[in-house]
Write a structure and sequence with these properties.
Layout lengths: L5 H21 L3 H25 L4 H31 L13
Helix pairs in contact: 1-2, 2-3
């Protein structure tokens, strides 16, 4: 049985980052876009905790807690805006929301 190394965590983080980036760039549904942003932030958290463990320093884990807090705030504000847009435009597709156009 081989131990799990930092490279395994980096590979998982790279996969999550790739999936999240593809989701943000290709999807039209705002809920899917918000979930993809959460995947990207989780990839960052995995990197922070992996390097924190590898270097025997707690600062990466503390910073990961701040990233989680930021992700929760982003999700709450994003879902609030999404509900307001859905009540106003009756759609959750990013292409059909044109409130900021002249």
């Amino acid at each position: 049985m081989h131990p799990i190394t930092t490279m395994h965590y980096l590979a998982l983080s790279a996969a999550l980052l790739l999936i999240g980036t593809i989701g943000v760039l290709t999807r039209r549904n705002i809920v899917i876009i918000l979930m993809s942003i959460e995947l990207i932030l989780n990839a960052v958290n995995i990197n922070l905790v992996a390097f924190s463990h590898a270097f025997k320093d707690v600062s990466g884990q503390i910073f990961a807690i701040f990233v989680i807090t930021d992700a929760v705030a982003e999700a709450a504000v994003g879902l609030g805006i999404l509900i307001a847009l859905f009540r106003n435009k009756e759609t959750v597709l990013a292409d059909e929301i044109d409130l900021l156009k002249w």
